[in-house]
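seq as requested:
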Amino acid sequence: MAQTTQDNTPGYTLQEQWRTMPMKEYAETFRDFGRVRGYCHGCGRYGKCWACPPYDFAEEEYLGQFTTISLLATKITPSEGVALTPETAERILNRERQRLDRMLLGMEGGLTNASQTDPSTHEVSETAARAFFAGTCILCPPEKCTRREGLPCRHPESIRPSLEALGFDIARTASELFGTPLQWGSPGTFPAYLTLISAIARTPFTRLQQDEQTKHGRF
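C-alpha cells:
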C-alpha cells in the first residue's frame, strides 16, 4: 500500500510517501546486515551513541517480533533560488528530523496497546509498535552522549534506532520502493534534493502474549 502527500514549506518542498508491507518480506529483500553494519563500524558514532550499534539485545529477535512495517520516504527539494549549502542542508535536515521523530513517537504511542476484540471469540488483541528514525540520535551533541562515559542514556524514552543501524539498505529502499534514488553531494556540488527514510513497525498480539513478551533494551 502506498500513499503520497506533498507540502510546500517556505524554503523547500516536502513530498512524503508511505509504503506498508510485511516485515519479513522487507527484511528478506532489503536487509544486508554484514555490508551495512560494516559502514557503521567505519562511523565515529559506532559504540559511542546509544541509538547506534552495537546493541545490548538480539537484533534478529527484536525485528522478528514485528509483522508489518510502514516505511516513510521524505523527499526535501529546495525552492528555486535557495542554495543547498552544507549549513542549509544541516538546518533543514535537523528541522525535519525533529518533526518526523515527534510524529513517529506519537504514532507509536497511539498504536501501542490499541485494543480490538474478536466478536467471535471475545479475545482481546492489542498492538505493539516501534518507530525507526531517519538517522542517528539528534537529542544530544555527538560528543556529549553519555555512552562515551559508560553512563545510561539521558533520553531512553525518546531514542530509536534507524533502519540502517539494524542492517537495512536505505539506498535500495529509497530507489526500489519509492522511486527516489538517494543523491550524494561532492566537493563543490550539492544534491538536487535530500531524502529521509523512517518507519514504524507493528505486531498484533494477545494480552497473554503481552504478559510473556520480553522488552529489548531501550527500544
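The CA atoms of residues 48 and 149 lie 9 Å apart.
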